[in-house]
């Protein structure tokens, strides 16, 4: 209680209604309160803890790197082993020509860097994003938050970046609005905060073609979809469309704060000159965060975790889809939106979940569906057990 009061008094709040559950420790698919109450973590820190909480391989990497060295010098000057090894590994797993990794600290910063790079490379100013897209809360990232739905959040912070347009995700005709004025188009290959909206067949290919026709760069925001969430290591591999720049964060740091934007040398190298130091960061690519991210990625690969994602997502879907309160399930791998159809039902189910020891969440641009995005390491047994608790809560709606 004392800690909770201090939290409310001194830790700045993002809303008047934080979850207020106290965390004592976390392990695998669970976290525990000081009273020993267990919660199924079906959010994974919003698609962060893909390898499970307190994964021993990641903990070991963090401890060893922290003891070796932490921050030494601003990003991009010294040769630091964890950074180099992680960049080389990521480049080897992304399709060509995505080979040059610019490390930053967060998702929003990855987006900021990618937008600046697109303007710098093309010499153009128009930025196009998707309606109901979320890319972060800094001024640039907020500027490309989907319009008009983002207005509820953006309005109070204007003026934001000029020359920003929004097109509708999955609307083929809208692609005509991408023109020779356009520096870049920014898209999540599967929209997350819109309430999990996968691309329609052929849409990402058509988007790629249109960008090529007019010389605009295509940027994929894989901050939520990357690192195995959709059942492939990156959603771009699932859909077979390669962007000019990809933004990574969240699970990319293995539970530590880390982001990156990745591109070809041809594009990325333009950030080196005119002006020099046009984009710089002190902590970007922190050695401990890179060591954690690399350990998490190696864990995913060595244990073939990503190969299990689609089946576990499908298992959740099959267990929940038949319930009369469930209108629809939208899904890509282990990113699920369970549609209840009404905000009031969503509020009620969140209360029931909290009592029953389930951590879920809603989506920024969809207040009628709840999220299931557990650690990718969740076992089939844990999927069944958590689905049974969810069904019990749905029965009590
Ligand atoms: C698709 C997407 N892009 C960007 C971000 C912003 O990342 P961060 O909170 O690390 O700035 C998020 C965060 O939820 C996201 O889901």
Shape: globular
Order of helices and strands: HEEEHHHEHEHHEEHEHEEHHHEEHEEH
Q: Main sheet: which strands, in order across?
A: 4-10-9-8-7-5-6
Integer-rounded radius of gyration: 21 Å
Residues in β-strands, percent: 15-25%
- The domain count comes to 2
Tell me which CATH architecture of the largest domain applies here.
3-Layer(aba) Sandwich
Largest sheet: 7 strands, mixed
Number of strands: 14
Which structural class do you get from the secondary structure elements?
Answer: alpha/beta
Any idea of the CATH class of the largest domain? Alpha Beta
Ligand catalogue: pyridoxal-5'-phosphate
User: What is the number of helical segments per DSSP (H or I, 4+ residues)?
Assistant: 14
CATH superfamily caption of the largest domain: Type I PLP-dependent aspartate aminotransferase-like (Major domain)
How widely separated are the two ends? 29 Å
Helicity level: 25-40%
């Amino acid at each position: 209680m004392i800690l909770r009061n201090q939290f409310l008094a001194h830790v700045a709040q993002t809303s008047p209604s934080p979850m207020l559950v106290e965390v004592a420790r976390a392990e695998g698919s669970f976290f525990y309160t000081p009273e020993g109450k267990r919660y199924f973590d079906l959010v994974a820190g919003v698609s962060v803890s893909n390898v499970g909480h307190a994964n021993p391989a990641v903990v070991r990497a963090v401890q060893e790197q922290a003891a070796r060295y932490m921050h030494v010098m601003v990003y991009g000057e010294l040769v630091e082993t964890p950074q180099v090894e992680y960049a080389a590994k990521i480049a080897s797993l992304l399709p060509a020509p995505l080979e040059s990794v610019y490390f930053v600290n967060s998702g929003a910063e990855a987006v900021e860097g990618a937008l600046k790079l697109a303007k710098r490379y093309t010499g153009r100013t128009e930025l196009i994003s998707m309606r109901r897209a979320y890319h972060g809360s800094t001024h640039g990232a907020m500027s490309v938050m989907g319009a008009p739905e983002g207005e509820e959040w953006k309005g109070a912070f204007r003026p934001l970046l000029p020359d920003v347009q929004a097109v509708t995700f999955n609307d083929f005709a809208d692609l005509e609005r991408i023109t020779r004025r356009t520096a870049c188009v920014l898209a999540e290959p599967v929209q997350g905060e819109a309430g999990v909206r996968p691309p329609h067949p052929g849409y990402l290919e058509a988007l790629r073609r249109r960008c090529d026709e007019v010389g605009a760069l295509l940027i994929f925001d894989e901050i939520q979809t990357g690192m195995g969430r959709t059942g492939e290591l990156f959603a771009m591999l699932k859909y077979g469309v390669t962007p000019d720049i990809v933004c990574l964060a969240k699970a990319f740091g293995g539970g530590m704060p880390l982001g990156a934007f990745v591109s070809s040398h041809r594009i990325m190298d333009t950030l080196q000159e005119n002006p020099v130091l046009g984009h710089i960061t002190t902590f970007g690519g922190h050695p401990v965060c890179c060591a954690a991210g690399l350990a998490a990625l190696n864990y995913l690969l060595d244990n073939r975790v990503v190969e299990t994602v689609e089946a576990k997502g499908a298992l959740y879907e099959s267990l929940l889809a038949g319930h009369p309160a469930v209108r629809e399930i939208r899904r890509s791998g282990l990113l699920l939106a369970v549609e209840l159809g009404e905000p009031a039902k969503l509020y009620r189910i969140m209360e029931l979940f909290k009592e029953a020891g389930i951590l879920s969440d809603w989506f920024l641009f969809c207040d009628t569906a709840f999220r299931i995005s557990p650690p990718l390491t969740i076992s089939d047994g844990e999927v069944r057990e958590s689905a049974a608790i969810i069904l019990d809560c749905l029965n009590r709606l």
